[in-house]
Specification:
490 residues, mainly alpha, two-stranded antiparallel ribbon, 2% strand
């Protein structure tokens, strides 16, 4: 078989997998309609979900036919990245359709809201005070499935030949059990269990049931979509804030680390490098900013610590919930928030950002290089960090990849900041807003609105998408498509 024919045949499997996942997306699109059982007055909006769901089901079914007779077929190298990129784009377009069909949002705004939902960012251009509840639930459902990942949802139901490659390409780092499908189902079970627990706690603290479901999903998915204009601050409740903090921390923790917690292996859990790094970072930044930056603003130390704790956990976990406005915050506090948003959450979690494990690894690399100067020349040095699976030894290749990723991430970040600056926004606000977008955080100083220039919204769309799928997957998919097309056309 010549190269061109082999490439064409391999794309039958690509289209087949895309079709299977698109059919699953059809079911996800119909889930918000469950709200109509409680709010039947919104039945008029059902058609806006049924049409894209039917389109997804039919197109997915047709594409899945390509898998017939392909038991011996093979994906060529890097086609897993193409599948992941394609299904995420399909999810965004299909999920944007209800907003457009109902004429609530235009094309750019609808794509923005869908990207923000699936990437668990939480930046929004809708007015939650007047938006129908079926659409509010639609946003939360996007964050639920966007947090665990579309591919993982597929693997929980199917056991594909190329499952592990797709699983890793979507950004998942750990397999909890030897069987990948069982790992996927276990992650979804843990995830759903936390959402249910969070909902019950919220209701116990007097939050309405509809709000409780939405906020529990958004907190655990580190998404940040709220049903209130003032976010969590609308409730003015310390128990609700504490519940949200716990859910946000759970959401930003590696899925494999959750298994250690649930099995009672607390000692091994706190040995994990990025867990220690996260706790130290919060323990240092919260009191520092509370006393230096917020003490005078909020009148007393306890209130400053309460606000700093919530906002900094929200920023570091890339959730995006808030209890206060940042309009009167001093530059020092805003600067620390920007740094935390850029660091981001844990690897293999629902969070975005550079990821704590990468920052931790770069810090360890600096320490290793520094101590090397004070050790005998021929001494054997063990370089390792602790991850959920135990001690992991670090090679130069891993360090190089980590530093390269961090460099590329910051280049894209400053490119986005430059676009915001070109529209006349202040430097501090531009740094904050784009750190929130590319870190999939969702906190805002007011730049992201329905009236924002389209180029600003598209810059943030790209930032959110790159921040969730991570840079290499997108680059690899685009380059692979170009090379394959070039081979076939030659």
């Amino acid at each position: 078989m010549n190269v061109n024919k082999r490439i064409v045949e391999s794309y039958r499997i690509v289209f087949g997998y895309i079709g299977v996942i698109v059919m699953i997306l059809a079911g996800i699109l119909l889930l918000p309609l469950l709200v109509l059982l409680v709010y039947p007055e919104e039945m008029e909006y059902a058609i806006h979900f049924v049409v894209p769901a039917a389109t997804a089901l039919i197109s997915g079914l047709l594409l899945s036919l390509f898998l017939r007779g392909q038991s011996d077929g093979r994906l060529t190298q890097r086609q897993d990245a193409i599948i992941v990129l394609a299904v995420w784009i399909a999810a965004v377009v299909l999920s944007a359709a209800p907003f457009m069909l109902s004429k609530q949002l235009n094309f750019t705004q609808a794509i923005f809201e869908a990207v923000s939902g699936w990437t668990t960012t939480g930046l929004s251009v809708v007015d939650v005070a007047v938006t129908p509840k079926v659409f509010l639930m639609h946003r939360s459902i996007m964050q639920f499935f966007g947090g665990v990942g579309i591919v993982l949802v597929m693997l929980s139901a199917l056991s594909g030949t190329y499952g592990m490659r797709l699983y890793c390409a979507e950004g998942h780092a750990d397999k909890l059990l030897p069987n990948l499908a069982k790992s996927a189902r276990l992650i979804l079970s843990i995830y759903a269990g936390y959402v249910l627990s969070g909902t019950l706690l919220y209701v116990a603290f007097d939050m309405p049931l509809f709000d409780a479901i939405n906020h529990s999903i958004a907190a655990l998915s580190t998404g940040g979509f709220s049903t209130k204009t003032d976010s969590i601050g609308a409730y003015k409740s310390l128990p609700i804030e504490l519940t949200t903090i716990i859910l946000m921390l759970l959401g930003t923790t590696n899925f494999a680390a959750h298994l250690l917690l649930l099995r009672g292996n607390i000692k091994k859990f706190f040995l994990i490098g990025e867990i220690r790094f996260m706790l130290i970072l919060l323990a240092f930044s919260i009191p520092l900013v509370a006393f230096v930056g917020l003490n005078d603003l909020y009148g007393n130390a306890s209130q400053g610590i309460r606000i700093a704790a919530f906002e900094f956990v929200s920023a570091l976990t890339t959730t995006g919930f808030s209890t206060v406005s940042y309009s009167d915050w001093p530059p020092f506090a805003i600067f620390v928030m920007i740094l935390l948003m850029l660091v981001g959450g844990g690897t293999g979690s629902t969070a975005g950002g550079l990821k704590q494990n990468r920052i931790y690894l770069m810090g360890k690399a600096f320490y290793w290089n520094l101590t090397k100067n004070f050790q005998p020349e021929h001494v054997v040095r063990e370089r390792y960090i602790y991850r959920p699976e135990g001690r992991v030894y670090i090679e130069d290749k891993q360090l190089t990849e980590t530093f390269n990723f961090a460099f590329l991430y910051m280049v894209l970040y400053f490119a986005g900041v430059a676009i915001l600056l070109s529209h006349g926004y202040p430097l501090q606000d531009s740094l904050f807003e784009y750190a929130s977008a590319i870190g999939t955080v969702g906190l805002s100083v007011g730049l992201t609105t329905a009236d924002a220039p389209p180029l600003v919204l598209w810059a943030e769309i790209i930032g959110m998408f790159v921040g969730r799928l991570e840079i290499y997957v997108i680059f690899v998919a685009v380059i692979k498509l170009y090379k394959d097309a070039k081979h076939v056309l030659e």
